[in-house]
Each structure stands twice: as structure tokens, then as C-alpha cells.
Amino acid sequence: MNLPDAEVYTFNAPDGVENRLTRYKAGSKGPVMVAHGAAVWSGMFMLPTIEENFTAFLASNGYDVWLLDWRASIRMPLRQFTLDEAAENDFPAAIAFIKDKTRADSIQAVVHCAGASAFFMTLAAGLAPDVRCVSCSQIALHYKVPAATETKCLLHLDAVLKSAGLDYLSCTEDPQHPLFQRLFTDMVNLAHHECTSSVCHRITFLFGHLYRHDKLNAATHARLSDQFGNCNITAFRHLAQIVRHGSALRYDWGREENLRRYGTETPPGYLNPEHLRIPITFVSGELNRTYLPESTAQTYNWLRAANGPELYQRHVVPGYGHIDNFMGYRANIDSYPLFLEQLEACPA
Ligand SMILES: [Zn+2]
């Protein structure tokens, strides 16, 4: 279907950081807020290179679609932030903005990767009581990553960047930085059989395999640089802390600063199921090697044990990896319906 004209809104979160919402009011269902991951932007849901992107899919199903560019968006100014700051500010402000514009009492949400991670922090902290149902992609509050080479990138990334004198994720082949070179070699071993795109190799180096090559069409693969960009090191360090811990916790500022901020030497966790008593569907790609499917299984099982099994669903998409669940050329057939199912089943 043809999308209605976009309505673009910018607003400031309570801490002054600008966010953007792009609305496609295709129908009366929803509103549904859609949130991207780190080092990407809402364009991942609006790919011009596939037959039916996620926005068009939701629109053709009659939804009022709101694409959020939160502070991690590569289309917003690069800044240092913790996921706690995004969780406390961006998502509550975006929800309030959508409610105000639509006069809806509540919203639904589809959230992906770091956007899902931060959004679940918002939920768990009780800061999003007006969210009715959630479809969650790849990660929520538990993190399980491969023990293999990809992990090395995530866990050692801050050391790499420090050695390169950077405060954001980028890529250099500068031989002055031996650690970087060693990791870069590992990355090439991972990626060089699959393609010759240096953009693709840099993405794989920084984030691990974000997609299965066989799920992307040539046009999407050729235009990856439209979709991926920089990620600030503070957010990435926070993700690395969470990966090492295994579940979401607040940013570790070091003992003294933790005591000052939290009253405890170590950062408090987010594993409180009290505010998560809403219908949630978790979706993982079977072959996700950025965050293993076990990640959503842990959150799913934890919630079922805490709040009962009725509210929660989980799907594993055969043959898919991470972001190809949205950017894949057949995702409208293989993956999108699993996210839609929860939106459709959501009580009014
Ligand atoms: Zn490639």
C-alpha cells in the first residue's frame, strides 16, 4: 500500500535531549511506537530496498505507526549517554507525546536490540504504565552472547577505542594500535568468506554478525552505509557491563560514584517483574550471533515464573540472525507476522 505522508515531530526529553517521532497514520489501530537499536536509526523499519518494509507492513494492517528516533539514533547528534538515561527520559517522553497527539489512553510498542533493552529498563522501573502490549526483538533484560570471537569485539571494545583515542565506535586499520589490529584480523576471518564490502566487514567487526547474508538482498547489502553509523562508547560500555553481568543493571560508575548515586557499591539491577505484567511477545532469530536466542528465553522464562505463563509468548525465527528480522527481503513473510500477532491480540 502507499503510505500516508509522514508527520515528523521533534521533542525534548526531560533532560533536554532531542528525540524525533515520525508518524504514518495509516489506520485506526494502535498507536504503535517502534524503536530501533544502537548505531542505526528508524530507517531500519523504512528500507527502500525491500518489497515490504516493517512500516508498510504495519500500515497495511491498519496501524497508526510512530517511528521513534531516540538518542541512540545515527540521525541525531552523537552524544555520550548510558542506557539508564535513555530509559528514564526518551521512552517515557515519547509515550507521553504519542498519547497527547493521538488522545489515546495507552500505546503498544515494537522494540529492537538496544532499543528493546533500554525500553525494558523503562518498563521495569515502572516508568511506562501506559504501554499496553509489547513485541520485543532479540533482547530484553537478559543477555547471552556467543563464547566465540564475536564476543571479543563487544567485551574488549572499550579497550580498543581507548587505544585508538576514540569516544565512539568507528573503524580504523591504523597499525599503531595492535589490539585493534588483532581483533580486526579476527573479524576478517569471520566475514571475508561472505562478501567484499568493507562497510559490511566494519559492521561485523564492531557488532558481531548482525544479519545473515542470505537474508539480505543485494540492494540492501549495497546500501548498508545508509543504515549503520556511530555508537557512543558510554552506551556500548554499558551494554558490555550488562553482557558480563548477564542481565540488565544500571551503569557501573565505579565504587565511589556508585555509592553516591545508588547508595550501593555495585549498580542495582533491573530484574523486577512487578511492572511487566502486560502481554509481551519475544522474538529471536534462530541464528542470531550478536545476542543468542537464549537471551529472550531467559527473560521469557523469568517472567512466566514470576507473573504466570498467560501473558507471554516467544518465537524463534528459523534461519534468521539479528537485524535481518526487519531488514531481510522476506522478513514480511517470515518475521513481521510474529511481531504483528501480539499487536493484534492486544486487549483494547
Ligand atoms: Zn557483507
Going by CATH, the architecture of the domain at 7-143 and 270-345 would be 3-Layer(aba) Sandwich
Distance between the termini: 25 Å
**H and E string:** EEEHEHEHEHHHHHHEHEHHH
Query: Proportion of β residues?
Result: 15-25%
What is the H level of CATH, i.e. the homologous superfamily of the domain at 7-143 and 270-345? Alpha/Beta hydrolase fold, catalytic domain
The secondary structure category is alpha/beta
CATH topology of the domain at 7-143 and 270-345: Rossmann fold
Mean pLDDT: 89
Number of extended strands? 8
| Lateral strand order in the biggest sheet | 1-2-4-3-5-6-7-8
Shape: globular
Instruction: Describe the largest sheet.
Output: 8 strands, mixed
Please explain how this structure is put together.
The chain has a domain at 7-143 and 270-345: Alpha/Beta hydrolase fold, catalytic domain (Rossmann fold), CATH 3.40.50.1820. The protein contains 13 helices and 8 strands. It has helices spanning 54-60, 83-102, 113-124, 149-164, 178-191, 198-207, 218-222, 233-245, 255-262, 294-307, 324-327, 331-334, 336-345, and strands at 7-12, 18-25, 29-35, 63-69, 107-112, 131-137, 280-285, 312-317. Strands 1-2-4-3-5-6-7-8 form an 8-stranded mixed beta sheet, sandwiched between helices. The longest helix is centred in the N-terminal third of the chain and has 20 residues, at 83-102. The chain is globular, with a radius of gyration of 19 Å. The two termini are 25 Å apart. The chain binds zinc ion (ZN). Zinc ion binds at residues 194-195, 197, 200, 213, 221. Residues 194-195, 197, 200, 213, 221 line the site of zinc ion.
